[in-house]
Amino acid sequence: MMRDHETVPYSLPDLSDGERIARAEAMRDRLKLRRSCRYFADTPVPRAIIEAAIEAAGSAPNGANHQPWHFAAISTPETKRAIRDAAEAEEREFYAGKAGPQWLKALGPLGTDADKPFLETAPWLVVVFAQRKGGIEEDGETQNYYVSESVGIACGLLLATLHEAGLATLTHTPSPMGFLRAICGRPDHEKPAMIVVVGHPAKDASVPAHALDKKPLSRIASWL
């Protein structure tokens, strides 16, 4: 096949169908144990784990290979405190009525409120930014494509890798999130997408029973 651009060989492990099924089912079973944790210990987590997870996220498929993301990994107490203060200010408005009664009712079974101590307790916060412009050279001008889709996939790989490493995670999305750009020193063309809280669960950590209510395969897939 003739191509007008440079290529490199594509390869995958040589597996039998049985081995592929076993791998897929094993990965499924491990990922089904992932839960959003809101109770963290302050036990340190090696930076090497965070680096590996971010590199995994950076391998995600994305529009035109522009890789429109930036991951700000935060461990300093002062910065975590600043993020908590700003996030809780937004959350207080959210729970005071900004969210609306229907949204607040939906959150009821999860037991969430405006207090976010995990933003300080957990050893790492990874703030994910979506780069609306920049291209692969990050020049701040080149248009990026499918930014939301690309960043969403990258966040999924980040969470999966951290879970595989045996760490607890939580995605936190205060609204609005513009304060994260200022705290993390990121440019105006980057939009905060989420905070990923990372660490070991507290000894008495629990999750809402409601979180275990997952739709079965028959409701989330169709076969045509």
Features:
224 residues; NADH Oxidase; four-stranded antiparallel sheet; 8 helices; globular
Profile the largest sheet. Answer: 4 strands, antiparallel
Briefly note the structural class of the backbone. Answer: alpha+beta
Oligomer: single chain
How do the strands line up in the largest sheet? 1-2-4-3
Entry summary:
It contains eight helices and four strands, in the order H-H-E-H-H-H-E-H-E-H-E-H. The protein is an alpha+beta fold.
Describe the protein's architecture and organization.
The chain is α+β, with helices and mostly antiparallel strands and 224 residues long. It has a single domain (36-203), classed as 3-Layer(aba) Sandwich (NADH Oxidase). The chain has eight helices and four strands, in the order H-H-E-H-H-H-E-H-E-H-E-H. It has helices at residues 17-31, 47-57, 77-98, 101-107, 118-121, 147-164, 178-184, 217-220, and strands at residues 69-74, 124-131, 168-172, 190-199. A four-stranded antiparallel β-sheet has the order 1-2-4-3, sandwiched between helices. Helix 3 packs antiparallel against helix 7 (178-184). The mean pLDDT is 96.
Topology diagram in text:
Blueprint: H1 17-31, H2 47-57, E1 69-74, H3 77-98, H4 101-107, H5 118-121, E2 124-131, H6 147-164, E3 168-172, H7 178-184, E4 190-199, H8 217-220
Antiparallel strand pairs: 1-2, 2-4, 3-4
Helix pairs in contact: 2-6, 3-7
